[in-house]
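pasting for the record
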Amino acid sequence: MDRLMATRVFVEVVERGSQTAAAEALEMSRAMVSRYLAELEGWVGARLLHRTTRKLSLTGAGEQLLGQCREMLAVAEAMQGVSQGRNEAPRGNLRIACSQSFAQAWLVHALNDFTSLYPQVSVDLLVGSQAVNLVEARIDLALRITNQLDPNLIARQLAVCRSVVCASPAYLEKHGTPQHLAELSQHNCLSYAYFGRSIWAFSRAGEPHAVAVSGNLSANESMVLLEAALAGGGISLQPRYSVGGHLRSGALVQLLPDYQPQELGIHALYGTRRQMPPTLRVLLDFLLERLVDRPDWDI
């Protein structure tokens, strides 16, 4: 039995939810998938899957074995990368997770340049602000803007995200321009569901400050709040990479410039250093170099 292939078949069946879907992904017959599963179960001496007409589910032994199988496949891929030679150009597919705002404002442009430089690389970009399980979703790299990191993941800080409080001229003309931090509590503040929903934190001359805010719109994606601010819907706390152009054009106005909103780290998250695919390592170095200095994010 090709135990490595049997391992791959097992993982594919679990991740795709059926033997039929796994067979299509692996370009083999469903009967061959069943054979590999049966032989793997014979090898480990335990049943790995509960099979019903509606769905598959893992047995206790299957749950224990799944992580080990994924590690085995990662080691095999790493060994294959070494055998291809260190000087060979990056190749293969990478799955990357990122928030919509950062993906749209910056990452997609960086990835376009990277894949132009390395045409044998392709990228599946999963856009969303919610944290995902990198293993279950088969994510190679997650880019997150946060100061609260998962201790079970490897994190590499790529840059610092600075933000700005802003509003449209139309909103300010109608509701007035806040001159002091406390006045934000009297305005319609558009809040981000995952960060600073009711309290906005600042620093001024090295001293921390905070203000309670509220408003008629909260969203789990900052790009939605940006559009609302541009439409005159309220005051928004936005990353500079999203609003730099709008501030320069006058579509948005920066408020309370003496107060610096809390800075967040832009982190690359991945599961392991030892088994990192060579292409992912090259991409990380590429993104870090691009993020070293971004003066166009500041106004």
